[in-house]
Amino acid sequence: MDSSTPRIEQQDTPQGRLFVVLGAWTAADLTPKPVWEALTAQLQQLGGDKSPGSWDLRQLEKLDHLGAQLLWNHWGHAWPAQLEVESSQRAVLETVARFPVTPAKPRKTNWAEPVILLGERVLAFVDHLKSLVRLVGQLLLDVIRLAKRPHEGPWRDFSGHLYHIGATALPITALVGFLIGVVLAYLISQQLRQFGADAFIVNILGISLIRELGPVLAAILIAGRSGSAITAQIGVMRVTEELDAMRVMGIAKGFRLVMPRALALAVVMPLISVWTTLAALLGGMLASQAAMGVTPSFFINSLPDAVEVANLTLASAKSVVFGLLIALVGCHYGLRVKPNTESLGQGTTASVVTSITVVILVDALFAVLFRNVGI
Predict the structure, then answer these.
(1) pLDDT at 71
(2) What are phi and psi of 25, to 5 degrees?
(3) What's the predicted TM-score (pTM) here?
(4) What string of DSSP letters covers 87-147?
(5) Which of 218, 199, 234 has its CA nearest to residue 270?
(6) Cα–chain-centroid distance for residue 288?
(7) Counting beta carbons within 10 angstroms of the beta carbon of residue 224, is it exposed (0 to 12), middle (13 to 18) or buried (19 or more)?
(8) What is the C-alpha to C-alpha distance for residues 373 and 329, in angstroms, rounded to an integer?
(9) Residue ranges of the chain whose pLDDT lies below 50
(10) DSSP state of 295
């Protein structure tokens, strides 16, 4: 055994039992699990908090407050009748005795806590839903106001959002769409080759990319890229008290902040969806030629016959809804940000997660409602 290992030796003397404390009683030496378990078992064998006898700490190598607390707890928060210590050791023990640390009481489980937690979640969801419905109603009123007085509209903000949300997103959406098309074509080709149905790869790629994957993929990318930016922009305005300044000056935040972003996303999302779909079809066409020998001319000529125009119309309509929802969710969480940076980070994260979830749910709803359109 190492000489620094914390331990207690029991000696029988004419005056009674003597407990000699040896080793290093510090946090670094006591915290290893084998040492702690061995020392705890030894203390229990000595009789617990009421063990009689004398204690000698003068042969200790080291002693810190953790070791002193362990001894103090073993003594039952009372000094032993006979105690031999150095002056420095007594100072540490007196400090521990002056500032006792009582263990926390075990928390009792309450059967009502899950019910209370569920109620809080339901109330929070209802509160978010009310705010979102109010935001949609205000957006409709702002659109009517814009239609009546278009010369008062925030057109410069609208064009700026078109550029930042749409034009700057074209490279990343094209890259991701192209790669998705390549991966999808390679996976499909492995299955179709087994049945000699190489020509049907155009049908599968066309339907899947134009109808579903293109709009959803574009919406998810825009939700993570621009939805978070919308929440962060409005949230920073809350932190820097710009929203309060707008209210003082009588500027409607819905007309100047929410409506331009919602209209810009509604306009640009179908274009980004078509752009992403074209990039995905290009990747799928090149991968089909490499994997199955399907020529680009055959792919392009067969695509109109394989995919009806109604699929593109449905995809564009879905994209408009996706854009409006992403903008509304981003503005909703941005306006709910409190004037601190922690709330800003939480709101941005919640905005991205909620936007992506809403996009997938709405896409599933479209798939069920329009399952007979274009197929």
Answers:
(1) 83
(2) -100, 70
(3) 0.71
(4) HHHHHHHHHHHHS--PPPPPPPP-TTHHHHHHHHHHHHHHHHHHHHHHHHHHHHHHHHHHH
(5) 218
(6) 37
(7) middle
(8) 29
(9) 48-50
(10) -
